[in-house]
Amino acid sequence: MIMNEKIRILVVDDDESIRRYIGKLLTQAGYDVLTVSNGKDALKELRTGPEISLAILDILMPEMDGLETLSEIRKLSSDLPILMLSALGQTNIIVKAMKAGATDYLVKPFEEEELELAITKSLEKKKLLTEISSLKKQLRVDELRGEFIYNSPKMQRVKDLVDQIAETDVSVLIEGESGTGKELVARALHYRSGLKDKPFVKVNCAALPHELLESELFGYERGAFTGAYKAKAGKFELANNGTIFLDEIGEMDLSIQSKLLQVLQEGTFSRLGGKQDVKVNVRVIAATNRDLRKAVEEGTFREDIYYRLNVVNITIPPLSERQEDITYLFEYFLDAYNEKYGKGLQVDKETLYPLLVSYPWPGNVRELKNQVKRLVILGDVGDLMHYLKDGKAHAAHERQASISRPEVLEIESDGDEIIPLKLAAKEASIKAERDMILKALRGTNWNKKKAAHLLQISYKALLYKIKECGIEK
User: Fold this and answer.
1) What is the pLDDT of residue 262?
2) Which residue range forms the structural domain that includes residue 398?
3) pLDDT of 23-75, one tens digit each?
4) Omega prior to 109 cis, within 30 of 0
5) 341 to each of 25, 210, 374, how far by Cα in Å?
6) Beta bridge partners of 32
7) Where does the Response regulatory domain start and stop, copy by copy (predicted)?
8) How many domains are contained in the chain?
9) Which CATH number goes with the domain that contains 402?
Protein backbone atom coordinates (compact mmCIF):
# COMPACT_ATOMS: atom_id res chain seq x y z
CA MET A 1 0.00 0.00 0.00
CA ILE A 2 1.22 3.51 -0.85
CA MET A 3 0.07 6.22 1.54
CA ASN A 4 -1.14 9.47 -0.01
CA GLU A 5 -0.11 11.31 3.14
CA LYS A 6 2.54 10.24 5.62
CA ILE A 7 1.32 8.77 8.89
CA ARG A 8 3.94 8.50 11.61
CA ILE A 9 3.70 5.52 13.98
CA LEU A 10 5.63 5.10 17.23
CA VAL A 11 6.46 1.49 18.19
CA VAL A 12 7.32 0.91 21.87
CA ASP A 13 8.58 -2.57 22.79
CA ASP A 14 11.58 -3.81 24.79
CA ASP A 15 11.96 -6.82 22.43
CA GLU A 16 14.27 -5.76 19.59
CA SER A 17 13.06 -8.54 17.26
CA ILE A 18 9.42 -7.37 17.68
CA ARG A 19 10.44 -3.75 16.99
CA ARG A 20 12.29 -4.77 13.81
CA TYR A 21 9.41 -6.99 12.64
CA ILE A 22 6.70 -4.34 13.15
CA GLY A 23 8.94 -1.58 11.78
CA LYS A 24 9.60 -3.53 8.58
CA LEU A 25 5.90 -4.31 8.02
CA LEU A 26 4.82 -0.71 8.57
CA THR A 27 7.60 0.79 6.45
CA GLN A 28 6.65 -1.51 3.57
CA ALA A 29 3.03 -0.34 4.01
CA GLY A 30 4.13 3.26 3.50
CA TYR A 31 4.12 4.52 7.08
CA ASP A 32 6.85 6.56 8.77
CA VAL A 33 8.04 4.50 11.75
CA LEU A 34 9.88 5.42 14.97
CA THR A 35 10.90 2.62 17.35
CA VAL A 36 11.95 2.89 21.00
CA SER A 37 12.63 0.26 23.64
CA ASN A 38 10.97 1.77 26.74
CA GLY A 39 8.26 4.07 28.02
CA LYS A 40 10.55 6.96 28.98
CA ASP A 41 11.94 7.23 25.45
CA ALA A 42 8.39 7.04 24.09
CA LEU A 43 7.33 10.01 26.22
CA LYS A 44 10.42 11.93 25.11
CA GLU A 45 9.55 11.37 21.44
CA LEU A 46 5.99 12.53 22.05
CA ARG A 47 7.15 15.67 23.87
CA THR A 48 9.99 16.77 21.59
CA GLY A 49 9.90 14.69 18.40
CA PRO A 50 7.81 14.99 15.24
CA GLU A 51 4.04 14.60 15.51
CA ILE A 52 2.92 11.02 16.07
CA SER A 53 -0.27 9.71 14.43
CA LEU A 54 -0.53 6.41 16.38
CA ALA A 55 1.41 4.57 19.06
CA ILE A 56 1.88 0.78 19.36
CA LEU A 57 2.68 -0.04 22.96
CA ASP A 58 3.76 -3.33 24.55
CA ILE A 59 2.15 -4.05 27.91
CA LEU A 60 5.03 -5.93 29.61
CA MET A 61 8.19 -3.81 29.74
CA PRO A 62 10.82 -3.32 32.48
CA GLU A 63 10.90 -0.15 34.61
CA MET A 64 7.88 1.69 33.18
CA ASP A 65 5.37 -0.91 31.97
CA GLY A 66 2.76 -0.43 29.25
CA LEU A 67 -0.07 0.59 31.57
CA GLU A 68 2.03 3.28 33.26
CA THR A 69 3.28 4.52 29.89
CA LEU A 70 -0.29 4.59 28.60
CA SER A 71 -1.35 6.69 31.58
CA GLU A 72 1.48 9.19 31.00
CA ILE A 73 0.75 9.40 27.26
CA ARG A 74 -2.87 10.20 28.01
CA LYS A 75 -1.71 13.19 30.07
CA LEU A 76 0.09 14.49 26.96
CA SER A 77 -2.61 13.59 24.43
CA SER A 78 -6.19 12.59 25.09
CA ASP A 79 -6.94 11.56 21.52
CA LEU A 80 -3.77 9.84 20.24
CA PRO A 81 -4.75 6.32 19.01
CA ILE A 82 -2.89 3.74 21.11
CA LEU A 83 -2.69 0.07 20.12
CA MET A 84 -1.66 -2.25 22.96
CA LEU A 85 0.36 -5.47 22.44
CA SER A 86 -0.20 -8.32 24.87
CA ALA A 87 0.63 -11.99 25.27
CA LEU A 88 -1.89 -14.81 25.67
CA GLY A 89 -3.48 -15.03 29.11
CA GLN A 90 -3.29 -11.28 29.88
CA THR A 91 -7.03 -10.65 29.68
CA ASN A 92 -7.22 -8.73 32.97
CA ILE A 93 -4.40 -6.40 31.93
CA ILE A 94 -6.03 -5.80 28.54
CA VAL A 95 -9.28 -4.81 30.26
CA LYS A 96 -7.37 -2.34 32.46
CA ALA A 97 -5.61 -0.91 29.40
CA MET A 98 -8.88 -0.37 27.54
CA LYS A 99 -10.40 1.33 30.57
CA ALA A 100 -7.29 3.53 30.84
CA GLY A 101 -7.77 4.84 27.31
CA ALA A 102 -6.26 2.33 24.87
CA THR A 103 -7.91 2.40 21.45
CA ASP A 104 -7.46 -1.30 20.61
CA TYR A 105 -5.19 -4.27 21.32
CA LEU A 106 -3.44 -7.17 19.60
CA VAL A 107 -2.43 -10.53 21.09
CA LYS A 108 1.09 -11.74 20.19
CA PRO A 109 1.89 -13.52 17.98
CA PHE A 110 -0.24 -11.79 15.32
CA GLU A 111 -0.51 -11.89 11.54
CA GLU A 112 0.41 -8.99 9.28
CA GLU A 113 -3.25 -8.55 8.27
CA GLU A 114 -4.33 -8.32 11.91
CA LEU A 115 -1.84 -5.52 12.56
CA GLU A 116 -2.87 -3.61 9.44
CA LEU A 117 -6.60 -3.91 10.28
CA ALA A 118 -6.07 -2.76 13.87
CA ILE A 119 -4.09 0.29 12.71
CA THR A 120 -6.70 1.18 10.08
CA LYS A 121 -9.55 0.90 12.59
CA SER A 122 -7.72 2.99 15.20
CA LEU A 123 -6.83 5.78 12.75
CA GLU A 124 -10.34 5.75 11.33
CA LYS A 125 -11.89 6.07 14.77
CA LYS A 126 -9.67 9.07 15.49
CA LYS A 127 -10.68 10.71 12.19
CA LEU A 128 -14.36 10.02 12.83
CA LEU A 129 -14.22 11.67 16.26
CA THR A 130 -12.31 14.64 14.83
CA GLU A 131 -14.87 15.15 12.05
CA ILE A 132 -17.78 14.96 14.48
CA SER A 133 -16.09 17.51 16.74
CA SER A 134 -15.45 19.78 13.76
CA LEU A 135 -19.06 19.53 12.61
CA LYS A 136 -20.30 20.57 16.05
CA LYS A 137 -17.98 23.58 16.12
CA GLN A 138 -19.21 24.76 12.71
CA LEU A 139 -22.81 25.12 13.86
CA ARG A 140 -23.86 28.71 14.45
CA VAL A 141 -25.60 29.69 17.67
CA ASP A 142 -28.95 30.32 15.98
CA GLU A 143 -28.75 26.95 14.23
CA LEU A 144 -27.97 25.18 17.49
CA ARG A 145 -31.16 26.57 18.96
CA GLY A 146 -33.17 25.90 15.82
CA GLU A 147 -34.76 29.35 16.06
CA PHE A 148 -37.62 30.42 13.81
CA ILE A 149 -37.86 34.04 12.69
CA TYR A 150 -41.41 34.66 11.47
CA ASN A 151 -44.51 36.78 11.85
CA SER A 152 -46.99 34.96 9.61
CA PRO A 153 -49.73 32.40 10.36
CA LYS A 154 -48.30 30.10 7.67
CA MET A 155 -44.91 29.84 9.39
CA GLN A 156 -46.63 29.52 12.77
CA ARG A 157 -48.26 26.36 11.42
CA VAL A 158 -44.86 25.09 10.26
CA LYS A 159 -43.38 25.73 13.72
CA ASP A 160 -46.33 24.04 15.45
CA LEU A 161 -45.82 20.94 13.30
CA VAL A 162 -42.08 20.92 14.04
CA ASP A 163 -42.77 21.12 17.78
CA GLN A 164 -45.30 18.31 17.48
CA ILE A 165 -43.00 15.79 15.76
CA ALA A 166 -39.52 16.84 16.92
CA GLU A 167 -39.39 14.32 19.78
CA THR A 168 -40.35 11.41 17.53
CA ASP A 169 -37.96 9.44 15.33
CA VAL A 170 -40.11 9.56 12.18
CA SER A 171 -38.62 10.41 8.81
CA VAL A 172 -39.57 13.85 7.54
CA LEU A 173 -39.76 15.28 4.01
CA ILE A 174 -39.42 19.07 3.81
CA GLU A 175 -40.62 20.65 0.57
CA GLY A 176 -40.22 24.22 -0.62
CA GLU A 177 -38.51 26.49 -3.10
CA SER A 178 -34.78 27.19 -2.87
CA GLY A 179 -33.97 29.66 -0.12
CA THR A 180 -37.16 29.21 1.91
CA GLY A 181 -35.36 27.80 4.96
CA LYS A 182 -35.59 24.02 4.62
CA GLU A 183 -32.27 23.49 6.40
CA LEU A 184 -33.37 25.70 9.30
CA VAL A 185 -36.47 23.52 9.74
CA ALA A 186 -34.33 20.37 9.62
CA ARG A 187 -32.03 21.76 12.31
CA ALA A 188 -35.02 22.81 14.39
CA LEU A 189 -36.33 19.23 14.26
CA HIS A 190 -32.93 17.95 15.44
CA TYR A 191 -32.21 20.47 18.19
CA ARG A 192 -35.72 20.28 19.62
CA SER A 193 -35.40 16.49 19.97
CA GLY A 194 -33.59 14.13 22.30
CA LEU A 195 -30.84 13.93 19.67
CA LYS A 196 -29.76 17.54 20.16
CA ASP A 197 -26.41 16.50 21.65
CA LYS A 198 -25.79 13.97 18.87
CA PRO A 199 -24.42 14.67 15.38
CA PHE A 200 -26.38 16.62 12.77
CA VAL A 201 -24.83 15.88 9.38
CA LYS A 202 -25.90 17.65 6.19
CA VAL A 203 -25.38 16.24 2.69
CA ASN A 204 -26.21 18.25 -0.44
CA CYS A 205 -27.25 15.58 -2.93
CA ALA A 206 -27.11 18.06 -5.83
CA ALA A 207 -23.55 19.18 -5.16
CA LEU A 208 -21.75 16.00 -6.23
CA PRO A 209 -21.87 13.62 -9.22
CA HIS A 210 -23.57 10.37 -8.27
CA GLU A 211 -20.25 8.44 -8.28
CA LEU A 212 -18.85 10.74 -5.59
CA LEU A 213 -22.14 11.07 -3.72
CA GLU A 214 -22.25 7.32 -3.08
CA SER A 215 -18.81 7.29 -1.45
CA GLU A 216 -19.67 10.49 0.45
CA LEU A 217 -22.83 8.94 1.90
CA PHE A 218 -21.68 5.38 2.54
CA GLY A 219 -17.88 5.64 2.72
CA TYR A 220 -15.41 3.31 1.07
CA GLU A 221 -12.78 0.72 1.84
CA ARG A 222 -9.14 1.00 0.88
CA GLY A 223 -8.65 0.07 -2.76
CA ALA A 224 -12.34 0.51 -3.65
CA PHE A 225 -11.31 2.76 -6.53
CA THR A 226 -8.27 4.54 -7.89
CA GLY A 227 -7.00 6.93 -5.24
CA ALA A 228 -8.73 5.17 -2.32
CA TYR A 229 -5.48 4.74 -0.40
CA LYS A 230 -7.22 4.27 2.92
CA ALA A 231 -10.71 3.54 4.16
CA LYS A 232 -13.08 6.40 4.90
CA ALA A 233 -16.31 6.55 6.87
CA GLY A 234 -19.33 8.01 5.08
CA LYS A 235 -21.83 10.57 6.29
CA PHE A 236 -24.25 7.92 7.55
CA GLU A 237 -21.57 6.62 9.90
CA LEU A 238 -20.74 10.16 11.03
CA ALA A 239 -24.42 10.72 11.78
CA ASN A 240 -24.86 7.47 13.74
CA ASN A 241 -27.23 7.93 16.70
CA GLY A 242 -28.03 11.41 15.39
CA THR A 243 -29.66 13.00 12.35
CA ILE A 244 -28.68 13.03 8.69
CA PHE A 245 -30.14 15.79 6.52
CA LEU A 246 -30.35 14.86 2.83
CA ASP A 247 -30.78 18.19 1.08
CA GLU A 248 -32.03 18.28 -2.53
CA ILE A 249 -32.78 14.55 -2.40
CA GLY A 250 -34.72 14.83 -5.65
CA GLU A 251 -31.39 15.07 -7.48
CA MET A 252 -30.18 11.71 -6.16
CA ASP A 253 -29.43 9.15 -8.88
CA LEU A 254 -31.56 5.99 -9.00
CA SER A 255 -28.46 3.82 -8.51
CA ILE A 256 -27.89 5.41 -5.08
CA GLN A 257 -31.56 5.40 -4.16
CA SER A 258 -31.57 1.60 -4.02
CA LYS A 259 -28.78 1.68 -1.42
CA LEU A 260 -30.59 4.41 0.52
CA LEU A 261 -33.69 2.23 0.64
CA GLN A 262 -31.71 -0.47 2.45
CA VAL A 263 -30.66 2.05 5.11
CA LEU A 264 -34.24 3.26 5.54
CA GLN A 265 -35.62 -0.29 5.78
CA GLU A 266 -32.92 -2.14 7.70
CA GLY A 267 -30.51 0.47 9.07
CA THR A 268 -27.61 -1.25 7.30
CA PHE A 269 -25.41 -0.68 4.26
CA SER A 270 -21.98 -1.64 2.98
CA ARG A 271 -19.17 0.73 2.16
CA LEU A 272 -18.03 1.08 -1.42
CA GLY A 273 -15.75 -1.89 -2.01
CA GLY A 274 -16.76 -3.42 1.31
CA LYS A 275 -18.20 -6.84 2.08
CA GLN A 276 -19.43 -6.36 5.63
CA ASP A 277 -22.65 -4.58 6.58
CA VAL A 278 -22.38 -1.41 8.62
CA LYS A 279 -25.27 -0.88 11.06
CA VAL A 280 -26.44 2.62 11.92
CA ASN A 281 -29.25 4.18 13.92
CA VAL A 282 -30.01 7.48 12.18
CA ARG A 283 -32.99 9.78 11.87
CA VAL A 284 -33.40 10.79 8.23
CA ILE A 285 -34.70 14.22 7.26
CA ALA A 286 -34.87 15.00 3.54
CA ALA A 287 -35.58 18.18 1.64
CA THR A 288 -36.35 19.03 -1.97
CA ASN A 289 -37.43 21.92 -4.17
CA ARG A 290 -38.81 19.46 -6.74
CA ASP A 291 -42.23 17.85 -7.03
CA LEU A 292 -41.29 14.34 -5.91
CA ARG A 293 -44.74 12.95 -6.70
CA LYS A 294 -44.21 13.96 -10.30
CA ALA A 295 -40.67 12.55 -10.20
CA VAL A 296 -42.12 9.23 -9.04
CA GLU A 297 -44.57 9.26 -11.95
CA GLU A 298 -41.72 10.04 -14.37
CA GLY A 299 -39.63 7.19 -12.98
CA THR A 300 -36.77 9.39 -11.76
CA PHE A 301 -37.50 8.84 -8.06
CA ARG A 302 -38.38 5.56 -6.35
CA GLU A 303 -41.91 5.31 -5.04
CA ASP A 304 -40.91 3.12 -2.07
CA ILE A 305 -38.33 5.68 -0.92
CA TYR A 306 -40.80 8.53 -1.38
CA TYR A 307 -43.30 6.93 0.99
CA ARG A 308 -40.65 5.96 3.52
CA LEU A 309 -39.34 9.53 3.64
CA ASN A 310 -42.74 11.16 3.50
CA VAL A 311 -44.01 9.87 6.84
CA VAL A 312 -44.49 13.51 7.80
CA ASN A 313 -44.49 16.25 5.18
CA ILE A 314 -43.59 19.86 5.95
CA THR A 315 -44.16 22.36 3.16
CA ILE A 316 -42.53 25.77 3.53
CA PRO A 317 -44.36 28.48 1.59
CA PRO A 318 -42.32 30.90 -0.54
CA LEU A 319 -41.62 34.31 0.96
CA SER A 320 -43.93 35.99 -1.57
CA GLU A 321 -46.86 34.08 -0.01
CA ARG A 322 -46.10 35.22 3.54
CA GLN A 323 -45.62 38.94 3.21
CA GLU A 324 -45.98 39.44 6.97
CA ASP A 325 -42.53 37.87 7.32
CA ILE A 326 -40.71 40.14 4.84
CA THR A 327 -40.29 43.28 6.94
CA TYR A 328 -39.97 41.20 10.12
CA LEU A 329 -37.05 39.24 8.61
CA PHE A 330 -35.60 42.45 7.16
CA GLU A 331 -35.41 44.03 10.63
CA TYR A 332 -33.95 40.86 12.13
CA PHE A 333 -31.19 40.63 9.49
CA LEU A 334 -30.54 44.40 9.67
CA ASP A 335 -29.98 44.22 13.43
CA ALA A 336 -27.82 41.08 13.08
CA TYR A 337 -25.54 42.51 10.38
CA ASN A 338 -25.33 45.93 12.05
CA GLU A 339 -24.04 44.14 15.14
CA LYS A 340 -21.71 41.83 13.19
CA TYR A 341 -20.06 44.60 11.19
CA GLY A 342 -20.18 47.30 13.87
CA LYS A 343 -22.61 49.47 11.91
CA GLY A 344 -25.64 51.49 12.93
CA LEU A 345 -27.50 51.71 9.62
CA GLN A 346 -31.09 52.97 9.78
CA VAL A 347 -33.66 53.07 6.97
CA ASP A 348 -36.77 55.06 6.14
CA LYS A 349 -39.46 52.44 6.68
CA GLU A 350 -42.22 54.43 4.96
CA THR A 351 -40.20 54.58 1.73
CA LEU A 352 -38.48 51.18 1.78
CA TYR A 353 -41.03 48.79 3.27
CA PRO A 354 -43.64 49.07 0.46
CA LEU A 355 -40.90 48.14 -2.02
CA LEU A 356 -39.79 45.21 0.13
CA VAL A 357 -43.32 43.83 0.33
CA SER A 358 -44.14 44.29 -3.37
CA TYR A 359 -40.90 42.69 -4.62
CA PRO A 360 -41.48 39.01 -5.61
CA TRP A 361 -38.37 37.57 -3.86
CA PRO A 362 -37.69 34.66 -6.24
CA GLY A 363 -34.69 33.70 -4.10
CA ASN A 364 -36.85 33.77 -0.96
CA VAL A 365 -35.31 34.28 2.50
CA ARG A 366 -31.78 33.62 1.21
CA GLU A 367 -32.09 36.47 -1.28
CA LEU A 368 -33.47 38.83 1.37
CA LYS A 369 -30.68 37.94 3.78
CA ASN A 370 -27.99 38.54 1.14
CA GLN A 371 -29.50 41.88 0.15
CA VAL A 372 -29.58 43.07 3.77
CA LYS A 373 -25.96 41.98 4.20
CA ARG A 374 -25.02 43.97 1.07
CA LEU A 375 -27.00 46.96 2.35
CA VAL A 376 -25.17 47.03 5.69
CA ILE A 377 -21.72 46.57 4.15
CA LEU A 378 -22.20 49.22 1.41
CA GLY A 379 -24.44 51.50 3.46
CA ASP A 380 -26.36 52.43 0.31
CA VAL A 381 -30.14 52.31 0.74
CA GLY A 382 -30.58 53.73 -2.77
CA ASP A 383 -28.79 50.71 -4.22
CA LEU A 384 -31.28 48.36 -2.52
CA MET A 385 -34.27 50.44 -3.67
CA HIS A 386 -32.97 50.37 -7.24
CA TYR A 387 -32.60 46.57 -6.98
CA LEU A 388 -36.16 46.19 -5.72
CA LYS A 389 -37.67 48.49 -8.38
CA ASP A 390 -35.77 46.75 -11.20
CA GLY A 391 -36.76 43.31 -9.93
CA LYS A 392 -40.41 44.28 -9.64
CA ALA A 393 -40.43 45.73 -13.17
CA HIS A 394 -38.69 42.63 -14.53
CA ALA A 395 -41.27 40.35 -12.90
CA ALA A 396 -44.11 42.44 -14.37
CA HIS A 397 -42.47 42.26 -17.79
CA GLU A 398 -42.18 38.46 -17.54
CA ARG A 399 -45.83 38.14 -16.60
CA GLN A 400 -46.86 40.33 -19.52
CA ALA A 401 -44.63 38.37 -21.90
CA SER A 402 -46.23 35.10 -20.85
CA ILE A 403 -49.71 36.55 -21.38
CA SER A 404 -48.79 37.98 -24.79
CA ARG A 405 -47.00 34.88 -26.09
CA PRO A 406 -50.04 33.22 -27.78
CA GLU A 407 -50.61 36.41 -29.79
CA VAL A 408 -46.98 36.40 -30.94
CA LEU A 409 -47.35 32.82 -32.14
CA GLU A 410 -50.54 33.73 -33.98
CA ILE A 411 -48.80 36.66 -35.74
CA GLU A 412 -45.90 34.39 -36.63
CA SER A 413 -48.28 31.98 -38.37
CA ASP A 414 -49.54 34.76 -40.62
CA GLY A 415 -47.03 35.04 -43.47
CA ASP A 416 -48.09 38.61 -44.33
CA GLU A 417 -47.31 40.05 -40.89
CA ILE A 418 -43.98 41.71 -40.11
CA ILE A 419 -42.63 41.30 -36.59
CA PRO A 420 -39.45 42.81 -35.06
CA LEU A 421 -36.25 41.00 -36.09
CA LYS A 422 -35.14 40.32 -32.51
CA LEU A 423 -38.51 38.79 -31.72
CA ALA A 424 -38.39 36.67 -34.87
CA ALA A 425 -34.92 35.42 -33.95
CA LYS A 426 -36.04 34.62 -30.42
CA GLU A 427 -39.09 32.70 -31.64
CA ALA A 428 -36.95 30.78 -34.14
CA SER A 429 -34.49 29.92 -31.40
CA ILE A 430 -37.24 28.67 -29.10
CA LYS A 431 -38.72 26.55 -31.89
CA ALA A 432 -35.31 25.07 -32.81
CA GLU A 433 -34.59 24.27 -29.16
CA ARG A 434 -38.00 22.65 -28.71
CA ASP A 435 -37.57 20.56 -31.85
CA MET A 436 -34.13 19.35 -30.76
CA ILE A 437 -35.38 18.42 -27.28
CA LEU A 438 -38.26 16.47 -28.80
CA LYS A 439 -35.87 14.71 -31.15
CA ALA A 440 -33.60 13.69 -28.26
CA LEU A 441 -36.55 12.50 -26.15
CA ARG A 442 -38.04 10.42 -28.95
CA GLY A 443 -34.63 9.01 -29.83
CA THR A 444 -34.17 7.79 -26.26
CA ASN A 445 -37.75 6.55 -25.86
CA TRP A 446 -38.39 9.50 -23.51
CA ASN A 447 -35.55 8.60 -21.14
CA LYS A 448 -34.85 12.10 -19.83
CA LYS A 449 -31.43 11.31 -18.35
CA LYS A 450 -30.18 9.88 -21.64
CA ALA A 451 -31.71 12.78 -23.55
CA ALA A 452 -29.95 15.28 -21.27
CA HIS A 453 -26.67 13.48 -21.95
CA LEU A 454 -27.22 13.69 -25.72
CA LEU A 455 -28.08 17.39 -25.48
CA GLN A 456 -25.05 17.99 -23.22
CA ILE A 457 -27.09 19.74 -20.53
CA SER A 458 -27.87 18.78 -16.95
CA TYR A 459 -30.91 16.67 -16.14
CA LYS A 460 -32.32 19.53 -14.07
CA ALA A 461 -31.89 21.96 -16.97
CA LEU A 462 -33.70 19.56 -19.32
CA LEU A 463 -36.67 19.28 -16.95
CA TYR A 464 -36.87 23.06 -16.80
CA LYS A 465 -36.77 23.40 -20.60
CA ILE A 466 -39.40 20.67 -21.06
CA LYS A 467 -41.69 22.61 -18.75
CA GLU A 468 -40.78 25.95 -20.37
CA CYS A 469 -41.47 24.66 -23.88
CA GLY A 470 -44.70 22.92 -22.86
CA ILE A 471 -43.47 19.52 -24.08
CA GLU A 472 -45.64 16.55 -23.21
CA LYS A 473 -45.25 12.90 -24.10
Assistant:
1) 94
2) 323-417
3) 999 998 889 999 999 999 999 999 988 889 999 999 988 888 999 999 999 88
4) yes
5) 55, 40, 11
6) 8
7) 8-123
8) 4
9) 1.10.8.60
